[in-house]
Automatic annotation (TrEMBL):
<feature type="binding site">
    <location>
        <position position="542"/>
    </location>
    <ligand>
        <name>Mg(2+)</name>
    </ligand>
</feature>
<keyword id="KW-0460">Magnesium</keyword>
<feature type="binding site">
    <location>
        <begin position="411"/>
        <end position="416"/>
    </location>
    <ligand>
        <name>ATP</name>
    </ligand>
</feature>
<protein>
    <recommendedName>
        <fullName>Acetyl-coenzyme A synthetase</fullName>
        <ecNumber>6.2.1.1</ecNumber>
    </recommendedName>
</protein>
<dbReference type="Pfam" id="PF00501">
    <property type="entry name" value="AMP-binding"/>
</dbReference>
<feature type="binding site">
    <location>
        <begin position="387"/>
        <end position="389"/>
    </location>
    <ligand>
        <name>ATP</name>
    </ligand>
</feature>
<dbReference type="Pfam" id="PF13193">
    <property type="entry name" value="AMP-binding_C"/>
</dbReference>
<keyword id="KW-0007">Acetylation</keyword>
<feature type="binding site">
    <location>
        <position position="515"/>
    </location>
    <ligand>
        <name>ATP</name>
    </ligand>
</feature>
<feature type="binding site">
    <location>
        <position position="537"/>
    </location>
    <ligand>
        <name>Mg(2+)</name>
    </ligand>
</feature>
<feature type="binding site">
    <location>
        <position position="584"/>
    </location>
    <ligand>
        <name>CoA</name>
    </ligand>
</feature>
<dbReference type="InterPro" id="IPR025110">
    <property type="entry name" value="AMP-bd_C"/>
</dbReference>
<feature type="domain" description="Acetyl-coenzyme A synthetase N-terminal">
    <location>
        <begin position="24"/>
        <end position="81"/>
    </location>
</feature>
<feature type="domain" description="AMP-binding enzyme C-terminal">
    <location>
        <begin position="531"/>
        <end position="609"/>
    </location>
</feature>
<dbReference type="Pfam" id="PF16177">
    <property type="entry name" value="ACAS_N"/>
</dbReference>
<feature type="binding site">
    <location>
        <position position="523"/>
    </location>
    <ligand>
        <name>CoA</name>
    </ligand>
</feature>
<dbReference type="InterPro" id="IPR020845">
    <property type="entry name" value="AMP-binding_CS"/>
</dbReference>
Length: 649
């Protein structure tokens, strides 16, 4: 193995880890040589009501595509996360909660969580929620968000969590697509000292004439702030749960029954409802949580992701709770009120495992090490990174300042669609290289292909695909199976296409280079450039817009918009600010363009197709090697755009 920038597995970690390198090699070989045996064995980590007799039943043939795992088995995800722990660890802490304001603290045992989930499940039933119904959850980072998810799972309802930073329009489109009858929210959320008007956003979403399915809204009183109330439709959380029984039998679900929907952005169209089912997802989330973080009973595990993203689903709720872990939920932002907050939380709660995102690490890094002068950090053992490529500089800072050079870093690559981590180091098995997600998890077969779909061997770079299924894989796009097949299985036939590019080095390590499609990743949040464009052109004064990502020091990628205004409109600074606010209102704060360049024309082919590669390069300030512009209808557009480019860093 080449030794440049190689961080060996610390000896004490290797000695006590669940798997060392030799075991990893053996288990990996077995997992791909005989997936049935491998997964049949490992699926036993979950309690099944009726055991499965068949393990894997999958086909990546785009003419006849199906993905089924353990499909004649039955189980309940909520029982696996709660009931089965009661006898041995009912009094252990399931959730440590810290408010945005650190003076607010709460601890919930497994027994208490079980009781709360049962009460809320009974309340949902009383509201008429049935097996298979989609329930939309728009909640802050409070214990009740987890309660709501597990209560849905308990009664066989399908939850669809919408990130609390999304706008009323974004909520509305998800509610319409899921045909939700019931919505769960809070009066307000609290983040970074500010109140987030969750209920008001819901009211606005539901006031749209095309939102017709919602019959009830359950509202948690979080801040006590004033809210509008629609009699008959709106109900307080405490009122529907107070009288409810603290036990609720679980619904027996088929392994392939839906567990949840989660909307995510693609290159085109509206966000799609990624559908995950029950058995395979839970086996995969729980197993990866245990192995990737080398989780040991009794350890305190903190994932900083919001519950509105897949990381919050798989590695804050389902994986760790299925493993009986103690999880920490922080309501606010880990660098508020100061960058010291992250270290304070780790020390206060003696966190052993920390899972966070490069964007946060870069933000902390920019503030300086001095904020960690009082940080002890001795409790920390393993640290993870997720959501976007981590630059080696940030990796080293994380390793040194937060991990005191003794905690292995697991840089975990995966996607909403994959349900769980696919490429990652294992703490006791994998020597790490800053910036590389390293090797595949058990059962995962990555490959790199050229643009024609030919598999490339050895050290090389290409499109990242997966050659076979794993249990946590999404099963379909909700309500649009054809879109599922088209998006993931038609680009390269017989393979799942990730949308990412990657490099493989001489040691077989994978280095994710980023998206190769029109998806951008802003602070680890995934956005389709088409979504931002359609928000922009919905403004009366915008004739045309093209949006691309560009390198951003803290966010990873920033949003760069080229906007052509309608004839006669003056391009003023006020209008630029108005358009930024407009997009924010249409989609949510995370989609606010960082830079808006006025463009009198866009680079188009003679047939009218926008040549985005020119726009990407100009936005990245890479103007020396733009490539052949001769196919453009008007090549002079390029010079004009270069002259007035905004990112000259
Ligand atoms: O481009 C990859 C990037 O995030 C995309 C998936 O985004 P999302 O579905 O929102 O899920 C994020 C959390 C799993 C991927 O296609 N990505 C995720 N993790 C990494 C990453 N890029 C590089 N390294 C990672 N560790």
């Amino acid at each position: 193995m080449s030794t440049q920038s190689l961080y060996s597995v610390p000896a004490d970690i290797a000695a006590n880890a669940l798997v060392n390198n030799e075991q990893y090699q053996k288990m990996y070989q077995k997992s791909v040589a005989n997936p049935e045996d491998f997964w049949g064995e490992h699926a036993k980590r979950i309690d099944w009501i009726k055991p499965f007799t068949q393990v894997k039943d999958t086909s990546y043939d785009d003419q006849n595509l199906y993905i089924k795992w353990f499909h004649d088995g039955t189980l309940n995800a909520s029982a696996n996360c709660l009931d089965r722990h009661l006898a041995s660890k009912g009094d252990d802490i399931a959730i440590i909660w810290e408010g945005d304001d650190a003076s607010e603290q709460r601890k919930v045992t497994y027994r208490e969580l079980h009781a709360e989930v049962c009460q809320f499940a009974n309340a949902l039933k009383a509201q008429g929620v049935k097996r298979g119904d989609v329930v939309t959850i728009y909640m802050p980072m409070v214990v009740e968000a987890t309660v709501a998810m597990l209560a849905c799972a308990r009664i066989g309802a399908v939850h669809s969590v919408v990130f609390g930073g999304f706008s009323p329009d974004s909520i509305a489109s998800r509610v319409i697509d899921g045909k939700s009858k019931l919505l769960i929210t809070a009066d307000e959320g609290v983040r970074g000292g500010r109140k987030i008007p969750l209920k008001a956003n819901i009211d606005e979403a539901l006031s749209r004439p095309d939102v017709t399915t919602v019959e009830s809204v359950i509202v948690l009183k979080r801040t006590g702030g004033a809210v509008n109330w629609v009699e008959g439709r709106d109900k307080w959380w405490h009122q529907v749960t107070d009288a409810a029984a603290t036990d609720c039998p679980v619904e027996e679900m088929g392994a392939e029954d839906p567990l949840f929907l989660l909307y995510t952005s693609g290159s085109t169209g509206n966000p799609k409802g990624v559908l995950h089912t029950t058995g395979g997802y839970l086996v995969y989330a729980a197993m990866t949580h245990e192995y990737v973080f080398d989780y040991k009973p009794g350890e305190v595990y903190w994932c900083t992701a919001d519950v509105g993203w897949i990381t919050g689903h798989s590695y804050m709720v389902y994986g760790p709770l299925a493993n009986g872990a103690t999880i920490l939920i922080h309501e606010g932002i880990p660098n508020f009120p100061s960058p010291a907050r992250l270290g304070e939380i780790v020390d206060r709660h003696q966190v052993n495992i920390l899972y966070t995102a490069p964007t946060l690490i870069r933000a902390l890094m920019a503030e300086g090490k001095q904020h960690f002068d009082k940080f002890d950090g001795k409790s920390l053992r393993i640290m993870g990174s997720v959501g976007e490529p981590i630059n080696p500089e940030a990796w080293r800072w994380y390793h040194e300042v937060i991990g005191h050079e003794h905690c292995p870093i697991v840089d975990t690559w995966w996607q909403t669609e994959t349900g769980g981590i696919l490429i990652t180091p294992l703490p006791g098995a994998t020597d790490t290289k800053p910036g590389s997600a390293t090797r595949p998890f058990f059962g995962v077969q990555p490959a790199l292909v050229d643009n024609e779909g030919n598999i490339l061997e050895g050290a090389t770079e290409g499109n990242l695909v997966l050659l076979d299924s794993w249990p946590g894989q999404m099963r379909t796009v909700y309500g649009d199976h054809e879109r599922f097949v088209l998006t993931y299985f038609k680009t390269f036939r017989g393979m799942y296409f990730t949308g990412d590019g990657a490099r493989r080095d001489e040691d077989g390590y994978y280095w994710i280079t980023g998206r190769v499609d029109d998806v951008i990743n802003v602070s680890g949040h995934r956005l389709g450039t088409a979504e931002v464009e359609s928000a922009l052109v919905a403004h009366d004064l915008v004739a045309e817009a093209a949006v691309v990502g560009y390198p951003h020091d803290i966010k990873g990628q920033g949003i760069y918009a080229y906007v052509t205004l309608t004839k006669g409109t003056e391009a003023t600074e006020e209008l630029r600010q108005e358009l930024r606010q407009w997009v924010r209102k249409e989609i949510g704060a995370l989609a606010t363009p960082d830079l808006i360049q006025w463009a009198s024309g866009l680079p188009k082919t003679r047939s009218g197709k926008i040549m985005r590669r020119f726009l990407r390069k100009i936005a990245a300030n890479e103007i020396t090697n733009l490539g052949d512009a001769s196919t453009l209808a008007d090549p002079s557009v390029i010079d004009t755009l270069i002259e007035s480019r905004l990112n000259r860093a």
